[in-house]
Amino acid sequence: MEKLIAPSILASDFTRLGNEIEMLNQSDADYIHCDVMDGVFVPNISFGIPVIDQINKIANKPLDVHLMIVDPDRYIKAFKKAGADILTVHYEACTHLHRTVQSIKDEGMRASVCLNPHTPIHLLEDIIQELDMVLLMSVNPGFGGQKFIEHTYHKVSQLRQLIEKRNTNTLIEVDGGVNYETGKKLFEAGANVLVAGSFVFGSENPTETIRNLKNL
Q1: CATH, residue 67
Q2: Is 122 annotated as contributing to ligand binding?
Q3: 33 marked among binding-site residues
Q4: Rounded Cα–Cα distance for residues 29 and 14 (Å)
Q5: Which position among 11, 32, 135, 166 has the lowest Cβ density within 10 Å, counted as fewest Cβ atoms?
Q6: Cβ atoms < 10 Å from Cβ of 131
């Protein structure tokens, strides 16, 4: 199974954002993970469409955009225009999830749905075949540097079983508390993509850290 790494630029040094993106361009990173927070759906505010538009001008890796916002349907076209390649919406934020997923695909982006730590896997049974990726939060969304929630391993295994049962190519992405120890166990449980923020950008050699994560 392919192992993909998506460093989260939320943990990068925004005074050197251009340099940080160039570093990711030259690294073994597969995606650039962009966390968009509105201060309503989650108790934090990060950045939005103008910043992603600027990142897209420099990045040569796909932009993996995670919307932690209310009413994401309003902004699907705008994020496509800004350069998003993968657009993740939260199950908990979408009243008509199937319509939202189809709207993302209609714009030519890959569609991903995120589950908060308390949200069970079985709620995706009726839509899993429509999804390019599922993002499982292994911390409560909103802030970096939180402690990894151990139950996530079980959720990854459950999701892997569902994907295999439905014979889909849906990727499993995990975000929160990723390091060498948790990352290895997540890959073993069936994850495909690891989001790593502070573990990458807080390390002495981010490029080497990304390479080591891929080789777990």
Answers
A1: 3.20.20.70
A2: no
A3: yes
A4: 19
A5: 166
A6: 23
Catalytic residues, which ones?
A: 35, 175
Nearest-CA neighbor of 136 among 26, 109, 145, 150?
150
| Three-class DSSP category at 12 | coil
35 labeled binding residue? yes
Number of domains in the chain: 1
Write out the E strands in 1-131: 4-7, 32-37, 63-68, 86-90, 110-115
Residue 202 annotated as binding site: no
Integer-rounded Cα radius of gyration of the chain? 16
For residue 153, count other CB atoms closer than 10 A to its CB: 19
**Residue 27 belongs to what domain range?**
4-214
pLDDT for the residue 143:
63
Mapped onto helix, strand or coil, the DSSP state of residue 169 is coil
Q: Pseudo-torsion of CA 132, 37, 33, 110, nearest 10°?
A: 20
**Residue pLDDT tens, the chain, 216 long:** 889 999 999 999 999 999 999 999 999 999 999 999 999 999 899 999 999 999 999 999 999 999 999 999 999 999 999 999 999 999 999 999 999 999 999 999 999 999 999 999 999 999 999 999 999 999 987 666 668 999 999 999 999 999 999 999 999 999 999 999 999 999 999 999 999 999 999 999 999 999 999 999
157 annotated ligand binder = no
